[in-house]
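Input record (one chain):
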Amino acid sequence: MAYVQPSESVVASMLLLGIIYRIIRVVFPMGRRSTDMPPGPSTTPILGNAMEMPRQRLHLQFSKWAKVYGDVFSLKVFNQTIIVVNSPSKVQDVLDKHSLSSSNRPMSTLADMVTPNNMNMGTGRLL
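The corresponding structure, as predicted from the sequence alone:
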């Protein structure tokens, strides 16, 4: 049996399909919540919950979502996952039980915006 060399168009088509597949794998999950994350508001492709995030008084929206999804819920903004812990007891649980995975986090600009006078978000006390 003789070896038949594939035509250039077949090779180009296979390469193009590979590139399209890779783009879909990267872009399609963007905005979707992973199955191992806490529940949260439904997301839209690519944007996630970006259009539902208020620019002011974010804490009020978090309180509304906590009534629907519980004290711990997740949001997806583009490719960023945000876990919201909305009760002091749950924050204490996270700090006590998951200290290794939750310590050494970068400073949060959002936390600085919603907590007055350098207040600790976990305990509600001034630092």
